[in-house]
Amino acid sequence: MSDQPKIHDVRLTNLFRFEDDRGAVLHHLRNDDPTFTQFGECYFSEIVSGAVKAWKRHRHQTQNLAVPVGHVRFVVYDDRDGSPTRGALDEVDLGRPDDYRRLLIPAGLWYGFRCLGDRSALIANCVDTPHDPDDNEIVEPEDSPIPYAW
Predict the structure, then answer these.
(1) Which of 58, 84, 113, 144 has the fewest CB within 10 Å, making it most exposed?
(2) pTM for the full model?
């Protein structure tokens, strides 16, 4: 598992959090962050323990993912023509308390994720364009040429 992604343009950012015995305040994305481009929409995705959601690729949309509840392993694969990291694969674990970070996945990269642990996880995603079903491509893991076994 890499601490910093090796795929070109993928970014991993530590996020501010304040926690006390009453609960937590968890930052995700600010408009003064150097990676921020524009706001499209923010949504949450639940994934149950052991489940896999893979593979997906967006043509134009950038993902900004954080896991405020539970633990999730993200896998990113680069098959972009002309990319200096074409053929590279990264695994990044996110979740609290130890891995509360934001994973930026630019358009054109395949990604998927698995819920780790014995409880469901919640993924927050703040993307730069509103959802457009024509912007993404989905391939089931068993039909995928991506060199990764879930």
Answers:
(1) 84
(2) 0.92
User: Quick one: DSSP state of residue 118?
Assistant: S
User: How confident is the model at residue 97, as a pLDDT?
Assistant: 87
User: What strands lie across the sheet with 121-127, from one edge to the other?
Assistant: 11-14, 101-105, 63-69, 121-127, 41-47
Q: Measuring CA to CA, how many Å separate 29 from each of 11, 35, 92, 114, 132?
A: 13, 9, 18, 23, 21
Q: How confident is the model at residue 48 (pLDDT cuts 50, 70, 90)?
A: very high
- Residue 44: which residues within 8 A CB-CB, separation 6 or more? 122, 123, 124, 125
Contacts (Cβ under 8 Å, ≥6 apart) of 31: 39
* pLDDT-based confidence at residue 3 (cuts at 50, 70, 90): confident
pLDDT of 135: 96
CA geometry: angle at 69 spanning 4 and 64, to 5°? 45
Q: Kindly report whether the peptide bond that precedes residue 110 is cis, defined as omega within 30 degrees of 0.
A: no
Q: Do 102 and 28 form a contact (C-beta atoms < 8 A)?
A: yes
